[in-house]
Amino acid sequence: MKYSELQRIVRAPVFSRQDLRQLGARLFSYQLSLWQKRGHLLKLKNGLYAFADRLAELSPEEISGLLYSPSCLSLEKALAGYGLIPEMVYTLTLITPKTTRKFKNYLGSFSYRHVKPSLFFGYRQVKGKFFPYLLAEPEKALLDYIYLNLSKIKTETDIKELRLNWPAAKKTINKARLRKYLAVYGHKRMKVACAQILDKI
Asked: What pTM did the predictor assign?
């Protein structure tokens, strides 16, 4: 197969070896390696490639689900997206019922944090330009953050150091949903921490 033929049959700016098989494309590993060396392709992870001249068409968010699935964008990145924390967040942190993993490629840094399968809920599907991805609801993103950082959240001072945007939290956080989701975690220290947050919003 010629590179021009690959460009013709693959419509999206990113593809996997499985995509090629489904398209009936006969492609050898040495060809992928050669096109990487020539700067035509970029390797995002083993078996996942992007066309170098189309990288700008991709967003890190919609690639996150392709790198490791099932996964859901949550914690700091989701909280920042909802305006609940003021910091600029450069690493995309996701939750997954699978093993904890990390990836770093041309689109950024991706951290996948393990949670129990029973805690993989509270998200909506977002339609990207090419691929959909899962995004945690604001209440779930906040609970995921507390749950995975419980060792650092022990006192009221620790809650203040979360630097939550309280005016935004009052507008965005649904108290009833937060309480409902909190009950699923069944963790006493989380209940204490969330009680302080609920008092402020």
From this structure: 0.92
